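Q: Could you fold this chain for me?
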Amino acid sequence: MEHVAVLAPSECHLKIQALGEIDAFNLFCRRAFYNRKDHRCPLDLENVAASIVTKCKGLPLAIVTMGGLMSTKLPTEHAWQQMYNQLRSELAKNDDVKAILKLSYHALPADQKNCFLYCSLFPEDFRISRESLVRYWVAEGFAVRIEHNRPEDVAEINLMELIHRNMLEVDEYDELGKVNSCKMHDIVRNLALSIAGQERFGYANDYGAVEKIDWEVRRLSLFLNNGKSCASTVKFPHLRALLETTTHPPGLLSSILSESKYLTVLELQDSDITEVPACIGKLFNLRYIGLRRTRLCSLPESIDKLSNLQTLDIKQTKIEKLPRGITKIKKLRHLLADRYEDENKSEFRYFIGVQAPKELSNLEELRTLETVEASKDLAEQLKKLMQLRSVWIDNIRTADCTNLFATLSKMPLLSSLLLSASHENETLCLEALKPESEELHRLIVRGCWAARTLEYPIFRDHGKNLKYLVISWCRLQEDPLLLLAPYVPNLVFLSLNRVNSAITLVLSADCFPQLKTLVLKRMPDVNHLEIIGGALQHIEGLYVVSLPKLDNVPQGIESLRYLKKLWLLGLHKNFRSQWQKNGMHQKMQHVPELHVKD
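A: Sure. Below is the predicted structure, expressed as structure tokens.
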């Protein structure tokens, strides 16, 4: 934007040039022929490919969008010429990058068009959670079961297709390499908003006045300024989805819910609501309720009438107990519930699960159960929940371990498991944990370990399947890195938090060959960390935090050539001076994100 650039001195201006002919063609080929070893354009397609690139006028967004679109077409001259003719026709109506984006939109299947338009409901530069998007789309019916693929699998496929076509951008990957969050380019979002408005698909109220919104809107996102005045009563009788994350006048939510009988998705995370209107029980079509990080202390009893509900997210609220009738909702697939007792996460039980309802076993469709408190009959209840993929259990006592872990072991689809003891001195005995599911890749254990834990089946037999491991509040006494390495060779993420250990930690040459992220946090005894040449060959993130006795620079740290993030925080008061004395800032210039603080 030229008018923004003129605010800076002239020597700071950078005029962005369009890509040259060769660079533009190479970029296009890398997208269009991504599955060919050399990304080379076939000879019979060179002329039409060059014509397509010329129409993009050197604009990278247009080039990669067209490249993504053409990668889905048959590599024949006839198919490509047809698409080029469509491109010319679209550009004749609107000679800019939006015409190219619109062409890519029209080439999408109907369900992916809906998924694409849905993303425009979020504000500019908003980080959209992959998990949330998948659940929204499933709730709305944009992703349905196809043969052996569950609706969630189909939604994931749709997401990756939109990313491949550059209609969504990956914002962040998770520890296992899956997309964690994504964003929509401003220009792409403007196009999506325009189409969504024309088709009455949805409306993003970017800090505008609610009363001016078309009453026939089907999907609405509200991001209201705290100080902006707004009517407390509005009606949207055709509403299917409401996304609202900020403050609103008293009565506004009740007004919307009482008239929106078709509502399918209700997302209110981070809003200031303290009560859910009882009229929510009349919304027969409701499939998704998101109330994360709100100030709620309870849910209305009428929620048991929502027989189509698939997702209930009440994480990080003040809710201690679920309504008695929650177990009547037989279609519930994702139950996410806990409360934060300590925002600083310094206490052992900084988050606490909800009490499991007595008839939890009725919810046979459950895929996700995060987090419930252990109880005498929890193991028996879980025996009927064999569809579970992710299970988080809090408040486990030593006496609970045998029955509870034996039941968890029989879950054929289990992929993520969190086990948290009732107290920092409570011992967790993992001997009965013998997972039948080879998909159990993520394990989080909080609490003391029984003796010889590493010789139990979860590590001895299943350890090679683990990719993500978090250990907290454990007393190993010896070097935990040396102990763990032989049992979990395929880890990509390892976090040790408040683990009492030997004073010296050593990463030997062959340990953790696949590890990409290592977190060493609140380990008060450690005063020396050594990285032997050849260790951590693929490490990208190293976080050494609150090791108050560590006063010397970790030996061998400069050999980690693929590091992208390095945090060295809360170490000994002499650490920073040693870092500077050894000229480490120069040696670690290859690390894009570097934080060194006392």
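A (continued): Residues 77-93 form the longest helix (17 residues).
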